[in-house]
């Protein structure tokens, strides 16, 4: 390994140190799905807001257990939505969710009663105090923290926010990101026929699709030829569009047209590292641009782009969003695996379940960084550290989901 090739852990440390948490902004409840909460949600009210019935039945009161066989007059009716009602005993016909009339303390379900006349019932079961009553504040008490800062808001959080009547929340600003694909072989327009030597741009659509799932906002996407000047001009357009993070693909390796390092030097960027002891994606470059935007120069091979995004850009996005470092899952390996020493491998993998519902991780065939078909079959990444050369089936490996906000979803059974 050449001296300027960093271990992944050292490179990651540099990425994390260069990344800054973004300030919070206010977001309407209707638009906050998937955003990261910046300030904890503290309930300003009780949930339920009032004592109410868990059953359709009759609300009663008593100082002790009311015994089966007791007969009571029906004094009134309370349906969901009915407001304040004062009761002085007797039986009140009540519906599920209806506010318990003041003065009553328990509910007997209608099927445990016998109707003696239109105005009188007999109880067919004992009724204890508080039975079938959902008390005010029993789910959420006023002034308690109900959603922690750093939570990625999902529909179940919106259920809670809606119940609390919250119109807006404070969320971390989304990192604004630009995607620049380099290479004069690239064709963006699907309607354009490929000339000899040309290929379609697949990194651009991949990055533009993955970044929003990772919590970022894509503000600029551009394809540029193999030309340092054109690249520098595209960088300026990306910055003008508000990007604070720029992801480029290609032109960071050893070829004659691998101009990204020189272009960065020319605009006065500070290269923080170039080349990491990983596969794929070894020639990955990380720089700070004048004005403090960050640039990840991802190697052009499509799987190097996917790995660069998942294991370098996404950890930076987590810092910007105020999220802690990820903890990988530990999973038994389904198949044996061996690799080249001294490089950390990021493997296209599939989380699978066996007949008993046990999880295992299968390293897929076709790990070369130009092969995109296995990525389409993958639902996870397995990591084999630099110092390990071979693993037997059943060995535990670190597993990451397809994106830092996504849990890997196991695919069909082995059999
Ligand atoms: N002499 C050496 N050659 C290479 C080395 C090396 O160490 N010494 N490293 C190899 C590795 S590893 C990688 S990864 C690549 C990275 O190269 P670049 O970042 O300079 O990328 P390009 O040469 O521009 O492209 C590589 C490959 O990817 C295709 N590509 C590029 N952009 C796209 C896109 N937007 N969509 C689809 N495919 C794309 C491009 O056509 C090339 O096939 O260098 C190795 N070489
Ligand atoms: O690191 Mo490169 O991505 O192996 O092909």
UniProtKB/TrEMBL annotation:
Q: Which cofactor does it need?
A: Mg(2+)
Could you tell me what this protein does? Answer: Catalyzes the insertion of molybdate into adenylated molybdopterin with the concomitant release of AMP.
Q: What is this protein called?
A: Molybdopterin molybdenumtransferase
Q: What class of enzyme is it?
A: transferase
Entries under SUPFAM superfamilies matching the protein: MoeA C-terminal domain-like, MoeA N-terminal region -like, Molybdenum cofactor biosynthesis proteins
Specify the MoaB/Mog domain's residue ranges: 178-319
The entry assigns this protein to a family as follows: Belongs to the MoeA family.
Domain of life (superkingdom)? Bacteria
Recite the UniProt keywords alphabetically.
Magnesium, Metal-binding, Molybdenum, Molybdenum cofactor biosynthesis, Transferase
Q: Which Pfam families match?
A: MoCF_biosynth, MoeA_C, MoeA_N
Specify the species: Dyella acidiphila
Q: Does the keyword Transmembrane apply?
A: no
Q: What is its EC number?
A: 2.10.1.1
The UniProt catalytic activity note for this protein reads: adenylyl-molybdopterin + molybdate = Mo-molybdopterin + AMP + H(+)
Q: Which InterPro entries match?
A: MoaB/Mog-like_dom_sf, MoaB/Mog_dom, MoCF_biosynth_CS, MoeA-like, MoeA_C_domain_IV, MoeA_C_domain_IV_sf, MoeA_linker/N, MoeA_linker/N_sf
């Amino acid at each position: 390994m050449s001296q300027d090739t960093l271990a992944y852990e050292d490179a990651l440390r540099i990425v994390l140190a260069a990344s800054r948490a973004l300030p919070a902004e206010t977001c309407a409840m209707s638009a906050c799905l998937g955003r990261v909460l910046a300030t904890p949600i503290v309930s300003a009210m009780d949930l339920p807001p009032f004592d109410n019935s868990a059953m359709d039945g009759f609300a009663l009161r008593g100082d002790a257990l009311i015994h089966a066989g007791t007969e009571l007059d029906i004094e009134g009716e309370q349906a969901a939505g009915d407001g304040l009602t004062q009761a002085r005993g007797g039986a009140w016909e009540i519906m599920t969710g209806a506010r318990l009339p003041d003065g009553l303390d328990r509910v007997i379900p209608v099927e445990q009663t016998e109707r003696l006349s239109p105005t009188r019932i007999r109880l067919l079961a004992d009724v204890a105090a508080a039975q079938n009553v959902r008390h005010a504040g029993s789910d959420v008490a006023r002034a308690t923290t109900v959603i922690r800062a750093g939570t990625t808001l999902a529909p179940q959080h919106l259920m809670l926010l809606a119940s609390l009547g919250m119109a807006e929340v404070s969320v971390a600003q989304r990192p604004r990101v630009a995607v620049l694909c380099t290479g004069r072989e690239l064709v963006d327009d699907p309607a354009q026929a490929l000339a000899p030597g040309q290929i379609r741009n697949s990194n651009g659509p991949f990055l533009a699709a993955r970044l929003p799932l990772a919590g970022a906002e894509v503000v600029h996407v551009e394809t540029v030829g193999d030309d340092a000047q054109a690249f520098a001009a595209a960088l300026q357009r990306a910055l003008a569009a508000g990007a604070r993070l720029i992801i480029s693909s290609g032109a960071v390796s050893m070829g004659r047209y691998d101009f990204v390092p020189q272009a960065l030097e020319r605009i006065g960027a500070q290269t923080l590292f170039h080349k990491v002891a990983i596969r794929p994606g070894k020639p990955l470059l990380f720089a700070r641009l004048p004005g403090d935007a960050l640039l990840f120069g991802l190697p052009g091979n499509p799987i190097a782009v996917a790995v660069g995004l998942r294991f370098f850009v996404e950890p930076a996005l987590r810092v910007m969003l105020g999220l802690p470092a990820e903890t990988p899952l530990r999973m038994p390996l389904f198949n044996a695996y061996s690799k080249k020493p001294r490089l950390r491998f990021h493997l296209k993998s599939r989380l699978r379940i066996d007949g008993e519902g046990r999880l295992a991780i299968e390293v897929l065939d076709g790990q070369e960084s130009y092969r995109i078909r296995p990525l389409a079959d993958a639902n996870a990444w397995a990591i084999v550290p630099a110092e390990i050369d071979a693993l037997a089936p059943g060995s535990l490996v670190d597993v990451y989901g397809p994106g830092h906000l996504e849990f890997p979803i196991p695919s069909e059974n082995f059999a």
